[in-house]
Amino acid sequence: MSSITTPPIAGGHLNVDEAVRHRYSRAAVETEQQLCCPVTYDPKLLDVLPIEILERDYGCGDPSKYVCEGEVVLDLGAGAGKICYIAAQIVGESGKVLGVDCNDDMLALARKHQSSVAKKLGYANVEFRKGKIQDLQLDLELLDDYLAENPVGNSGEFLKLQEHSLQLRQKSPLISDDSIDVVISNCVLNLVHSEDRNQLFREVFRVLKRGGRAVIADIVSDEAVPLRLQGDADLWSGCISGAFREDRLLAAFEDAGFYGIEIVARESEPWAVVEGIEFRSLTVQAFKGKQGECLERNQAVIYNGPWKAVLDDDGHKLLRGQRMAVCDKAFKIYTRAPYQGQITAVPPHQLVPVEEAKEFPCSGPATRAARVTKGDTGDLTILPEGDCCGPGQC
């Protein structure tokens, strides 16, 4: 933990965007110790990385440990590329890793070692793209190419630039819709302006495939950061004064339409304390895929416990040990990550065909009668035969 004395705000106002660009450009050239949180990585995954990248690790967690083989991964704010190159080894040759950053110096450093890392791995599955993480539609390198040939010198040319930017978003998006298995990020979301954060979460949601997930490691605060500190560019660029309040980070995922939101890692000790406000590393995982119609197909689930009852992100209440009636969409969600270990699926004896399914009323908790799922067994009686009590008999 480090104690920080808040510097005065020069002239009463500082441009935090400029401060972030300057600080991370400088950090691409020389190590910035104040941007580092202690993080333990799998040492085997670090062997292929050059010292130059290892020395410029400005993260606060390791979201790559939640990545799986064969997945398409997007790293927001990839910086020097450390997490991208780690994830590249986990997803393997059948997977792919895309890193997005808007800082030219960091992009140059990350790209500098692409061929050497690929040679060590035996395959090349990492690509770095230039863009802002809150606008994953606009490819800034394509925009740079346009500006090189069409410099802006008046309002008319500026309007043409806006029109061209719109065309780039529509025809050549930086990251396409529904194209990513998992979005990861390591201590970057707190650098985004507060007014751009709703767009940021919408963009993460847009690029994920249905059933995909986001795993975000970031610095959070235990109290709301006052506006006076938010205006301090040094604290903002240092991943401190722009921190989400802990509960609001999870709420932002919920507001964007994610489900199954959970804290998968949280540092007990604060990384920094400013005016009594604690700042620590938090890693959150959230899933996409609860959208769509609710169909009645006679399915049920049993919540195994240990809580007496639980409430999901859509307000559905599951009572411990009881067969709860659920729609087809919820049944599929509950029987995969992150719920499957807490749920026992009870499929029906005969599944209602989708084309015959009626709308399921998701208005409140409703139990499902056993005979709905097992079918009409009438007065059927089956008793065990023989001795089932001896060793090896059952």
Structural overview:
Helix content is 30%, strand content 22%. The chain is α/β, with parallel strands linked by helices. The strands form four sheets. Strands 1, 2, 3, 4, 5, 6, 7, 8, 9 and 10 form a ten-stranded mixed sheet that branches. α1 runs parallel beside α5 (104-112) and α7 runs antiparallel to α8 (155-171). It starts with a strand and ends in a 20-residue tail after the last helix. The model is unreliable at 1-14 and 23-32 (pLDDT under 50).
> So what's the overall shape?
elongated
- Percentage of residues in helical conformation: 25-40%
Largest sheet: 10 strands, mixed
CATH first level of the largest domain: Alpha Beta
Brief digest:
It is elongated, with a radius of gyration of 25 Å. It has helices spanning 16-29, 43-46, 51-54, 82-91, 104-112, 114-121, 140-149, 155-171, 197-207, 227-230, 233-237, 246-255, 328-334, 370-374; strands at 2-3, 72-76, 96-101, 126-130, 180-186, 208-221, 244-245, 259-266, 272-274, 277-287, 295-296, 299-303, 309-311, 317-319, 323-326, 343-346, 358-359.
SSE inventory with pairings:
Layout: E1 2-3, H1 16-29, H2 43-46, H3 51-54, E2 72-76, H4 82-91, E3 96-101, H5 104-112, H6 114-121, E4 126-130, H7 140-149, H8 155-171, E5 180-186, H9 197-207, E6 208-221, H10 227-230, H11 233-237, E7 244-245, H12 246-255, E8 259-266, E9 272-274, E10 277-287, E11 295-296, E12 299-303, E13 309-311, E14 317-319, E15 323-326, H13 328-334, E16 343-346, E17 358-359, H14 370-374
Parallel strand pairs: 1-9, 2-3, 2-5, 3-4, 5-6, 6-7
Antiparallel strand pairs: 6-10, 8-10, 9-10, 11-17, 12-15, 12-16, 13-14
